[in-house]
Design a protein that fits this description.
alpha/beta; 13% strand; globular; 7-stranded mixed beta sheet; 13 helices
């Protein structure tokens, strides 16, 4: 079956997130996660003839979904380079930025990419297939402490140290090159009742490390803080607590660490004002239609 943009990725919280941008017809907007193009297409329907949209994606597969619209500029790059690319295109300020941080359903469903424990595949996990470091490289070359830190920090797994030790022991016998090799090495450490959840966390941790996702997110949000104009909107959809914490901190304090800075009078100096302290989550109906949306959280802030 031919891949369509819809089968590539079903956009999560589509109306809520694009509504959150409060689009001006002649404004300049950025979608930092093009994917199947769902959010970008919706933004384009609300832009006038003079409006502009810049959409980022580092995955070559996403290029198959580019729509033919002269208002759209597709940027083949990691969103961490947001500010550099906007300067390249002569854009100093934008009216809003949207990011759907989740891994696309296409990545999980493409057995060959190694993102899912459902399929036997090369242990790859690169979002950008032009990148050189794969998940197999990390699993086979990182030392035991590095592996334990990855699984604990990015997967929040209590058994991170034992899992790391088992991997190091296994790879002395033979290289761990496929998802099956990886699962066979770690499966004894997962309880049957929570095996799928813990395995998903383990794969998530490795994927985050391969793609430097947390560093890229911090860099992108710092860039967004620089280029979103006063009154502009920052709209981000997160899927796990690590990235949500960073987004929440930037929106409340202006930095990924959540460090609160105050002026002489004790007033908090933060560049954004969150629209609400409550996150927006998908409706039960959307969660039924799109299981991937179940962990999604939408946060919206206005640039002061």
């Amino acid at each position: 079956m031919a891949m369509t943009a819809e089968s590539y990725h079903v956009p999560v919280l589509l109306k809520e997130s694009v509504d959150g941008l409060s689009i001006k017809p002649d404004g300049i907007y950025v979608d930092v996660t093009y994917g199947g193009g769902g959010h970008s297409k919706e933004i384009l329907t609300r832009l006038g003839l003079k409006g502009r949209l810049f959409s980022f994606d580092q995955d070559a597969d996403a290029e198959q979904n580019i729509v033919d619209d002269e208002r759209l500029t597709f940027v083949r790059s990691n969103f961490r380079y947001l500010v550099n690319w906007m300067r390249y295109y002569g854009v100093e300020q934008i009216d809003g930025l949207l990011g759907d941080l989740g891994v696309s359903s296409h990545h999980f469903d493409d057995a060959e990419r190694g993102f899912s424990f459902r399929f036997e595949a090369p242990l790859d996990m690169r979002m950008n297939k032009r990148a050189t470091i794969t998940a197999a490289d990390i699993v086979n070359k990182a030392d035991e402490k590095q592996l334990a830190d990855i699984f604990y920090l990015y997967g929040e797994l209590k058994s991170a140290r034992r899992i790391a030790a088992a991997i190091v022991k296994e790879r002395t016998q033979k290289p761990i090159l496929t998802t099956k090799d990886f699962i066979d090495a770690v499966e004894p450490f997962f309880k049957r009742e929570s095996e799928k959840k813990d395995m998903a966390r383990l794969f998530q941790a490795l994927r985050i490390e391969v793609n430097h996702e947390m560093d890229a997110l911090r860099q992108m949000l710092n860039g967004a803080t620089q280029i979103i104009k006063p009154g502009g909107r920052l709209v981000i959809i997160t899927y796990h607590s690590l990235e949500d914490r960073i987004v929440k901190n930037v929106m409340k304090a202006g930095n990924p660490e959540g460090t609160v800075n105050q002026d002489f009078f004790g007033r908090i100096e933060a560049p954004f004002t969150p629209l609400s302290n409550k996150v927006i989550t998908p409706t039960p109906d959307e969660q039924m239609r799109n299981p991937r949306s179940r962990s999604a959280k939408l946060r919206i802030a206005t640039r002061k």
